[in-house]
Every structure is written in C-alpha cells, then in structure tokens.
Design a protein that fits this description.
Order of helices and strands: HHHHHHHHHHHHHHEEHHHHEHEHEHHEEH
Largest sheet: 5 strands, mixed
Strand order of the largest sheet: 4-3-5-7-6
Radius of gyration: 25 Å
Strand content: 5-15%
Helix content: 55-70%
Number of strands: 7
Structural class: alpha/beta
Shape: globular
Number of domains: 2
Length: about 550
C-alpha cells in the first residue's frame, strides 16, 4: 500500500490548487475580527520593526511563528490581503497534507483521500484556511507530529511538536497528553487486555527514551514565555487577557457547560454529527469482506492515540479559553473524521456514497447559518460581516469624514487603521464595548462627544433560535460566556437622540449609521473642549 501511495509533493500541489481556486472570491477581503484586532497588527509590527512583541496592539503572548511567516511573505511580495491569504493557504495545504499522511499511516490511501477531502470541506477548516490566525497552523503541525509519533521517529516528533507550540501555545496539549499516555503504558502490567491498548511488540517497543521527544517542545515554549516576561513583565499575556481566558473560567458549572460545547464541536458542530451518527450506526453492521477477508480497521493502539488527543483537547479547552470558539478544536476534528471515514469504509460496501453525503452537507454548511448562536468565522457568514462593514464604513467616511464616531470593537480598529482595508483615512472614534442596553445608555450620557454612531451586530442571533427560548440558558450564557443582546438600530437611535441614515442586513447580521441630532452650538462646544484638552495634554 505504501509503495503505491501518491507522492507527497503531488498531493500537496493538488490540495493547494484546489483550495486556492475555492477561495478565489475571498482572497481580497479586508481583515476580519481577530485578524484585525491582533494577528495582522502583530505581523505588521514584526515587518516594520522586527519586534516579536507587538506594540500597536496589546500582547496576548501567542508565539510568533505564524506572524513571522506572514511578515516574510509581505517582505517578499507586498503588504496586501491577497498576499496574506495566499500565505495562509500554503499553510492550510501543508496541514491537509499532514491529515493525508496521518490517515494513510493509520488506515490506507482510500481513507486518507476521503478524510482529507472531508477535512478541507468542513466549514470551520474551510474558512480558517485563508484567515490570518494561528489555530490551523498549530493544528497542521500537530498532525505532522502525530504522524511522526505513529512512525516512531523521535527526532521528527520533537521538531514537529516544537514548531506547533511556536505557532500556538495550546499545541503543547497533544505531546503532553501522549507523554502521559506513554507513561501510563509503561507502568501498566505487561500482560492483559489493557496493555493491548498501547503500541508494543514488534511494531514499536515503547521505553522511557521515547517519551523524551514529547517533552522537548516544553523547551521552546518556556523560552518564549521567558522572553515575553522579560520584555513585557507578563508571562501569559496582559492581565486582562489572562483573566478572561484562565482566571474567569475556573468555575465548576462553567466547566461542565463548556465541556458539553466542546464535545459538540468535536463530534457534531455544523453537520459533523452526520459523520458521527453514520459511524455509530455503521458499527452495528458486520465488517465488509473483500475476497473473503474483512476490510481492515485502524489498529486499536492508533485509535487510542487519537482518542487521547481528543480527550485532552476537549477537557483542556473546556477549562480555559474565555470564548468557546470552534477553531480551538481544529487539532481534533480531523482525528474524528479519520475514525469516522475508516469505520464507514470497513462496514459499508458503498461507503464512498456515505462520504459524499457528508461532504455535501459540509459544503451546505458554508452558506447555511445554524439555528443556534455561532461565530461568523465558522462559515461564510464572516464574508457577510466584512461586506456589511465595508458598505457601512464607506458611507460613513463619505458623508461624515470629520465626525467623531461612536462604535465598538472591531469597527473601532477598522475605522482608525486604514491598512486593515476598510477606511481610506483614520476616523476619530469614541469606543464602547458593545450595543447592549447598558452600554448604549452609558453612551447617551456623553452624546455631545460624538456626532455619528456606527452600530452593528456584535453577536450572531438566529431568527428562530433553537435553545434561546429557555431563559435559564440565556442567563448562563450571559454569566459565563459574555453573551449579550445588541439593541436594534432604531432603538439605539432613539436612546442617543438621532436618526438612522444608513442600514443594511445580511442573513442575521446588520450594520447602521446613526446621525446624532444636536445643534451647531453644541458641536462647536465639543470641538472647543477637544481643542482645549489637546492643548493641555501637550
């Protein structure tokens, strides 16, 4: 089987050309959400000042490997979204090649092709493929590390997992989980059914020296955190970042809720449940026989390796991380896909038809927004967001070029940083946290400080929510996951004493521009006070 497997370079080329063509309509979009808020400014600081620690945005201690990769492309080709997204597609193609190699090593070439196709078309992977964020790169390097681990290549294990943690610090979870699993295997009795869960015998005799490569990634990660501490005084990012992602998440009830969400993201999110359900139903059937021989399954020790990584990520990501984002689970979703596809092939004669149904469902989820709250970055809803903000901010800049504008993040960055691709010149911004009732009422108290408001949906809210009809669920989301409801533009205008002069909607998302009605005398007083404040500051 291995002798007839396709060459890695050919597989990479096919993957890259395919995903590049699929992403052509998205390659010139301006930067979105966390791209604009952190990753692009951090990469730009690295490009312009060779600084590993960003200074135009608050550092959150993410290692700089991906930002350095983007800055290298900018240096060689030019600073543009097309260049950035092309660079990330190279990373995505390399990651999918890692999925192919991992599936081929664990099963066979047929399963590898089907699993890679499903992974590339899965909505979260598809959208993350061209976004300038670190999660897909960390996941891809983790797949290469897992492949080296299964092939018992300790040097490659150390290298791939070390690169993974330099892409994102949470990538340490996979080697740490595998190290703990191997230690458990060493102390277990040498005989018995339980010991068969670990790789042993002629395939790969495990020993303490095999655990060392899994611990080596701790070295570059520790060195990075030490460097970050020396430069900023903080180890794990700024205090607010640490509080939001660690300190504020250590609550037993929140952990249980987040655990359920992480299990859903690993096995059911955005039509992934079709593959999981198909796998479970197929397990009720006997294995298909070809020429009297049952189709092979993934070896139990390999399945256990996959499940260890899945469990570690599900538990750890439920424990930490203020936002329960689906992209944090990218390292485990392909493992579930590989197991599911292998099971379908083993137990269904026409398994390729079942895989085709799954891929069609994944593509449908690119465009279909589910009946529950989700992050727009998980499917093409992020494009709707960008187009809405482009239209609204273009109107704002054309009609109110000198106005002070009330808005919230990330529009505050979009309006003040023209190099993000939204505005042609910086706009003066007054920032609030969101457009909830409390924040808008607070803004109304200093309405004389701005002449116009740019408001938008900061959370996706389905027209007919599946779970939000239960008041207790909404209260729990508000308490533990930062949920709030944005006021509609007409309500914001009424509270601020203005009128809606522009509005646009797309599939549950919206933007609006509100002109604040105040006298010229009030405007003059505001401008005079701003001038006085500026002179005092000087």
């Amino acid at each position: 089987m291995r002798s007839s497997s396709p060459q890695p370079v050919l597989v990479f080329a096919v993957i890259f050309v395919t995903i590049f063509l699929l992403h052509v309509p998205l390659l010139q979009l301006p930067y979105f959400w966390d791209e604009a808020g952190y990753y692009i400014p951090a990469a730009r600081d690295l490009l312009l000042g060779a600084s590993l620690i960003p200074h135009t945005t608050v550092s959150n201690a993410h290692p700089p490997l991906v930002m350095a990769w983007i800055a290298l492309w900018w240096k060689a080709v030019g600073f543009a979204p097309l260049v950035t997204r092309s660079a990330m597609l190279v990373v995505a193609a390399f990651s999918f090649l890692g999925v192919f190699r991992l599936a081929e090593r664990g099963a066979n070439t047929q399963v590898a092709i089907a699993s890679t196709l499903c992974t590339a078309l899965y909505p979260v992977f598809f959208t993350q493929s061209s976004l300038a964020q670190v999660d897909l790169a960390a996941a891809g390097l983790t797949f290469w590390g897992l492949c080296a681990y299964l092939e018992d290549r300790p040097v490659a294990v150390a290298i791939w997992f070390s690169l993974a943690v330099l892409a994102k610090e949470t990538a340490i979870l996979a080697p740490a989980g595998l190290a703990a699993w191997d230690v458990l295997g060493l102390v277990m009795p040498k005989r018995g059914v339980w010991h068969g869960l670990w790789r042993n015998g002629s395939e790969s005799k495990r020993s303490w020296r095999h655990i060392l490569p899994l611990l080596i990634p701790l070295v570059p990660l520790t060195l990075w955190f030490a460097y970050h501490f020396l430069r900023t005084g903080y180890v794990f990012g700024n205090p607010e970042f640490f509080r939001y992602n660690v300190a504020a998440t250590l609550n037993p009830l929140r952990f249980l809720l987040a655990l359920g969400l992480r299990v859903w993201q690993a096995f059911g999110y955005l039509h992934l449940w079709l593959l999981t359900l198909g796998m479970l139903l197929a397990m009720l059937l006997p294995a298909v026989k070809d020429s009297g021989t049952e189709r092979a399954r993934i070896a139990i020790p390999v399945q256990m390796v996959f499940l260890v990584v899945v469990k570690v990520y599900v538990i750890a990501m439920a424990l930490i991380g203020g936002a329960v984002l689906a992209r944090y689970m990218l390292p485990v979703v392909p493992l579930v896909i590989i197991l599911g596809v292998s099971t379908l092939r083993r137990r269904l004669r026409y398994w390729s038809a079942a895989v085709a149904v799954v891929t069609v469902a994944f593509v449908a989820a690119w465009f279909w927004n589910p009946p529950y709250g989700f992050s727009p970055e998980d499917n093409l809803a992020y494009r709707d967001y960008i187009v809405l903000h482009q239209d609204g901010e273009r109107f704002l800049e054309a009609r109110y070029p000198m106005a002070h504008t009330l808005t919230a993040w990330p529009a505050s960055d979009e309006l003040t940083r023209p190099w993000l691709g939204y505005a042609t010149r910086p706009v003066q911004v007054v920032r609030i946290e969101d457009f909830s009732l409390e924040e808008v009422l607070s803004a109304a108290e200093f309405r004389s400080h701005f002449e116009v408001a740019f408001v938008f949906s900061t959370k996706y809210e389905p027209a007919h929510p599946l779970l939000d009809r239960w008041k207790v669920w909404e209260e729990l989301k508000s308490r533990f996951f930062g949920f709030h409801r944005d006021l509609p533009p007409t309500a914001v205008a009424r509270i601020l004493g203005g009128k809606v002069v522009f509005s646009e909607q797309r599939k549950g998302q919206w933007v609006a521009v509100i002109e604040i009605e105040q006298s010229e005398l009030q405007n003059a007083k505001v401008r005079m006070q701003n001038y006085v404040d500026t002179e005092r500051a000087r």
